[in-house]
Design a protein that fits this description.
The complex is a heterodimer.
Chain A: H1 2-28, H2 32-52, H3 56-84, H4 89-98, H5 103-125, H6 135-141, H7 150-158, H8 160-178, E1 182-183, H9 193-216, H10 224-240, H11 247-275, H12 287-311, E2 314-315
Parallel strand pairs in A: 1-2
Helix pairs in contact in A: 1-2, 2-3, 3-10, 3-12, 7-8, 8-11, 8-12, 9-10, 10-12, 11-12
Chain B: H1 2-25, H2 29-54, H3 57-90
Helix pairs in contact in B: 1-2, 2-3
Classes of the chains: A mainly alpha, B mainly alpha.
């Protein structure tokens, strides 16, 4: 038994050391591409940290978003940055170095950092050594939640309005990207046979895994956000392979799917408000399928939103230009 | 048996730390990207070992998601960053 503890202790120590080292490297890297690769590695280790903290739900979300989609999104952003500013990275760095920052701009961030560290330290030290938190409350109410996974019960039932607001946040994020302007062209049609056959195998598997994660969320770690990001990854892969989307689908059908998650949430919340007397207070008998309905709509919206974010701008029809 | 799983996971994590050298040294973008892909594969293996040690199915799901999405990152790299960075390296 002792040998296991030593091995686990060494594993945790190495993990923490690597994580802090990577965090520093990401922040200090002058080469943006290197920073992206390091950030993807950071996401991988972060997922392992969540596993060690016995939070498999967050590990799954981190695996889907942190290590998977973020890398693709950041690389698309870097690509567009290079298109806007075709200056070599080295020249940008040296010109930035020449400008000496003024004293307040050096001191103010330091003061802010010290205050944050002090605040966080105080919050950490003032925590009780052992606390049950809300675990007993959640356990007590689980029978009424309609699902068997406590995380899903909290996210979609006990604090359903949090998830509702998160759906709106995602929509706002996409709207702010769209407000920056349109995308000139869709990626050119793919002529690479390797990529084409990869898509034929991988996209159906991604969609299947997405459905699985959505379904399993009722009993085990999984749910709309994980399922949605896997679905979004399928969309990203299709966009990268030059998937041709009909212009008329890009207009209203796409927008309908984008607002579906928030829309269904708000409609159900309003109906329940008038029939049950509270926002998102599901009747116990119907809670299970209402949660599944909400999560299905949310999965579609999250997937479409992430793929649209990767696209990087409002898809413009050729007529508009 | 649990000890074996944990020791192997520790060994893989040491491997991952060694792979950091390639990410930092480069010299090309492809070297860095391939090191990151190797990290992904290593993380899948570590997750599977931890899943066996803890008897947790959720960790197998996480490993599955990692394995699937690593391919998407690789394709994004080849399609979007590769051509751009190649030009820059030649300059």
């Amino acid at each position: 038994m002792e040998a296991i503890d030593i091995a686990l202790g060494l594993f945790d120590l190495l993990l923490v050391f690597l994580l802090l080292w990577l965090a520093w490297l990401v922040m200090s890297s002058e080469d943006l591409f290197k920073a992206i690769v390091l950030f993807v590695a950071f996401g991988l280790l972060m997922a392992l940290v969540w596993v060690r903290l016995e939070a498999p739900d967050i590990a799954l979300a981190e695996a889907a978003i942190g290590a998977g989609l973020t890398g693709a999104l950041l690389m698309a952003a870097l690509d567009r940055l290079n298109a806007v500013k075709p200056m070599p990275a080295a020249a940008v760095v040296t010109s930035a170095k020449r400008e000496q920052p003024s004293l307040p701009s050096k001191v103010l961030p330091l003061v802010a950092l010290v205050l944050i560290v002090l605040g966080l330290g105080y919050a950490l030290l003032s925590l009780p050594d052992v606390a049950d938190g809300l675990v007993p409350n959640v356990k007590e109410q689980m029978a009424q939640s309609g699902v068997k996974n406590p995380v899903t019960a909290v996210l979609l039932n006990f604090r359903g309005y949090d998830t509702l607001l998160e759906m709106v946040v995602l929509l706002l994020a996409l709207l702010s990207v769209w407000s920056l302007g349109g995308v000139r062209k869709l990626s050119p049609r793919n002529t690479n046979p390797v990529l084409a056959s990869l898509c034929r195998v991988l996209v159906p598997v991604l969609i299947l895994v997405s459905c699985y994660l959505l379904w399993v969320g009722a009993d085990a770690p999984g749910g709309a956000f994980q399922a949605g990001s896997v679905l979004g990854a399928a969309g990203v892969l299709l966009l990268l392979s030059g998937w041709h989307v009909e212009q008329k689908i890009l207009l209203w059908p796409l927008r309908f799917i984008l607002v579906l998650g928030s829309g269904v949430f708000i409609i159900i919340a309003a109906v329940l408000f008038f029939t049950q007397g509270g926002l998102l207070t599901y009747p116990v008998a119907q809670a299970g399928w209402l949660i599944l309905l909400l999560e299905s709509a949310a999965t579609l919206s999250i997937g479409a939103t992430l793929a649209a974010l990767f696209f990087g701008g409002i898809p413009k029809s050729r007529v508009d230009q | 048996m649990q000890l074996l799983y944990i020791t192997l996971a520790l060994f893989l994590l040491v491997n991952l730390a060694a792979g950091m050298w390639r990410v930092l040294r480069g010299p090309g973008v492809a070297d860095r990207m391939l090191a990151a892909q190797l990290f992904g594969t290593t993380a899948v293996a570590i997750l599977l070992l931890l899943a066996e040690a803890a008897g947790s199915n959720a960790l197998r799901d996480a490993a599955l998601v990692f394995a699937l999405l690593a391919a998407v990152t690789a394709v994004a790299f080849v399609k979007r960053a590769w051509s751009m960075q190649e030009e820059r390296d030649v300059d």
